[in-house]
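A further point concerns the way the authors explain their paired sequence and structure data. The central task, working out the structure tokens from the amino acid sequence alone, is never made concrete. I therefore recommend that a typical entry be quoted early in the introduction. An entry of this sort, consisting of the sequence and the corresponding backbone structure tokens, reads as follows:
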Amino acid sequence: MHHPLQHLNPQSSVTNLDYTHNLSLYYLRCQSNAFLNKLCLFIIIIIIIIIIIIIIIIIIIIIIIIINILFILIPLFTKYEEFGPVFLQEPDDAIFSLDSDDKKVIMNCEARGNPVPTYSWLINGTIVDPGGDFRYSLIDGNLIIHNASEAIDYGRYQCRAENSIGSVLSRDALLQFIESFDGRMRGAVSVREGQGVVLMCAPPPHSPEIIYSWVFNELPSFVAEDSRRFISQETGHLYISKVQPSDVGSYVCQVKNTVTNARVLSPPTPLTLKTDGVMGEYEPKIEAHFPQTVLAAKGITVRLECFALGNPVPTITWRKMSGNIPKKARLRKSQAVLEIPNIQLEDSGSYECKAENTRGGTAFRGHLQVYTLPQWISMINDTQLDSGEQLRWECRATGKPRPTYRWLRNGEPLNSQSRVEMVNGELIIHRLQQTDSGMYQCIAENKYGAIYSSAELKILASAPMFSTNPVRLIATVGKDVSLECRPRASPKPRISWRKSDRRVQIMLLRNNTLRIINSSRSDEGSYVCRAENQFGSAELTTMLLVKEPMRVELNPVRVEVTVGESVVLSCKVTHDPSLDVSFLWLLNNQPLNTQQEGGHFEYIQTSSTADLMIRSILLKHAGKYGCHAQTSADSVLAEAELLVRGPPGPPGVVIVEEITDTTATLSWSHGVDNHSPITTYNVQARSPVSLGWQTVKTDPEPVTGNMESAMAVELNPWVEYEFRVVATNGIGTGDPSTPSRAVRTKEAGIFPSVAPANVRGGNGRRHELVISWEPISEEFQNGEGFGYIVAFRANGTRGWKEKMVTSADSTTYKYRDETFPPLTPFEVRVGVYNNKGDGPFSEVVTVFSAEGEPREPPSEVQAFAISSSEIKVIWKPPNPGPGRPQAYEVSFWKDMEQEEMGKKKRTTGNETTLLLTGLEGNTQYLISVKGFNSAGQGPASSPIKISTKKNAPSLPPGNLMWIQEGNNVSLSWDPVKARDNESEVIGYKVLLRQEGRGHSQVMRTPNSAVVLTLPEGGTYIIEVRAVSEGGEGAASAQVRVLTSSGKRWLGSHSLGGFSDLRMCAYGNRLDCFHIIPL
């Protein structure tokens, strides 16, 4: 088929393009297809994100440049405060393996200070000279030891940090070494079977932080510990209490450092069996045990070992001689190890382990002693003092044994002198001098450890200096005035005052403040404070002005208003005209926040008045109002009282004093009357059956405002009530009181008088009679023990069957009898009773027994394939009779599946047709139908077979081409060919919708072309789908058409998206464009 578009010559039209056309056509290209529209939007979003990222990077670069400039400029304009060294990192104990490839040890040290500290190191108290010994070097504060040797480098290390302020010493750090085993071969150990043996580890010198294990024959086969074999973590030895033939082999002791993870292995020790017989039984002998005295630091985990040789293998038991073993203790390694975590002082004492077998027993006893390392209670802090003053520092620490104290100054021991006293952690230096400045350290230590506390002592020495000079002070006539003189100086200066070259002898306080009593105009003038010490002197001039005192008048002083009214409080000030005055309103001594009061308050202020308007007054606005006026000379507060009349507040809690079957005596307390006397009280009650709170009759009636009790009358017997009281005055009715506790009226002493209503029945299962009724509300039960009597009999019989239902809330009774057939009529009535007797019965009604579940399946079941995913099922109901279906259930499953694997779908009522959806195409299904009702399900119909239609075509219509002339669009496409497993195409569906709206117009056609007429004004989206028996196929690419009269547009789509898009617009001349797809 030839299309007019194919005759356009694209090359002749390209020359007409300019830059504006390119942009316009690119925009049209994006708008004409949904896919390209999303692609263009995606590209625009990516460009925006890239621009944002570039802006963020530029901002970050600018910030970094500014920070670097500040780091350069700040030191030029700011003088940092100097301070002594403070450790950030102190050296830690270290363990070094001599077998390490790297023969270098690093001891870390870092401190802060201004000036920046320098570092030096001490080994066992001797200064290290990195310049004189090439094996030592310093990088920052870290000491590096090259070619470390145990003979030379073993010991305790301390780091010294020093600057111009002083120096400090770090804590001790112990450097230890671990060596390799002696390489000499070890002799074989030969024992009899059944004999005990100890294989010696004999480790090289090492630190305590190691773990022992034994290799059996070769790695990675390790000896497993049990009741017969034990590895001591104290000695490293391997203990075998009773040797067996399986123990014969080669044993190697492995030592692992837990800090460095370094491992060393001993030479192998062969274990062989003697051939001269088997060892007989013998009593235990403890070979591995904890020391006679065990010292342990508080808080660590203690492990006590005890293991014995013997035949049979001994069992180990533990006990504490004075008291019980701590509950937190655990037994490890077949009870050979007693482990006590987080050891405390109360865990100290004598412990005993006992080894026993059938031949006897033996025991070992030792003492566990817990010590504590020193811990700070109080430490010293940086201090600044004047020269000549006294320094008193105290540091306190706990520990067991009790710690002792010593002091260092600039890293050197501090000794008692004429001015220096040191007693039990207290340091006193009298008459401080400039030479006493520096870094001080208090060391608390016992034989298990030491802790350091450091502080800087700075001795101040400066001439007097005032931060503000001169000072202007305004006072009022008749008031006392204080003129302060607080210079910064060290030592403290001598102070003197003068006025106009005359010494002032008016009251001088201890803090050098000059106090003028009952000031007057004659006291005005310049006052000079002179401060002087050995380093210099300075003067402070205070200009004193004395003004007339301010007077404040607030009107009205006391006012009463009613809720909802308005009032104005007027505040007038008389003051010196040279001074500015400011106002602050207070309510009950708290600043009044008008913004939070919902527009009730408004200020009206002039230079000497401040009025407060209060609109639509509420009860909470009552109180004491204050007008606070202030000038630079003085401040005055005037107060007024506002009383607000309103409805009364809630009365006090209601108490039920006495209760009968129909009355309740109540009492309460008066609430606030809000300045209007209470006239009446209203008593209200609420019960579970009432509609909220209801006013009840009272005795007396009415209840006047001076009463605090009344009796509620005409209540219902045996009903639970709550009571509350509401007060009323001349203004209105207030809020109710808190409800009373719930109380129940007493029984009426009579049986119930009201019978159940709306007795009915039906439904239920086969052979059941279901009877229901409306329950009797509590107010008509008249007493305790209320229940129902259900009476029934089959029609035509005489005797009634009666059943008691004891629950007052029950509404249903079911009776079952296999003998009566479905839909049997019964005469039914329901009565009531309580503890006082039986009440009336309801009218007799006829109730039928249940009809039972359906007995027959639906008939004439048929199924029709609607599409590849839908099947319509129809049937006829069973023959009329008992067991009528209320609804139906359709079961469907694939031909190759079991019925249990299938699905079910139910009708909403007793319809006889159902549409099955969501099925697979070109698939055979089995379908059956059954009826059901409240009694159960009936039998299912015989399954029928039906196949869904083949799937709809998967390919969309392709190569869409269209011509638009005004509002008419001629649309054509390539026909869709169905695959072998797809339904044949029987036509096409063209969907047309206006952009931005969800509703679509549908046109069907058997051909692959159609002419559409579009309304003017708007953009329309067109898509095409193939139609087959299996349903609708995939949608074509969307066509976007803009309606505009007087122009002709031509275009095409290929199957995979856009092909070359050719557009022509007819106006005064022919303009053609050829757009190459992106």
Q: What stands out?
A: Residues 686 and 693 are 5 Å apart (CA to CA). Residues 34-77 form the longest helix (44 residues). The two ends are 28 Å apart (CA to CA). The chain has four helices and 90 strands.
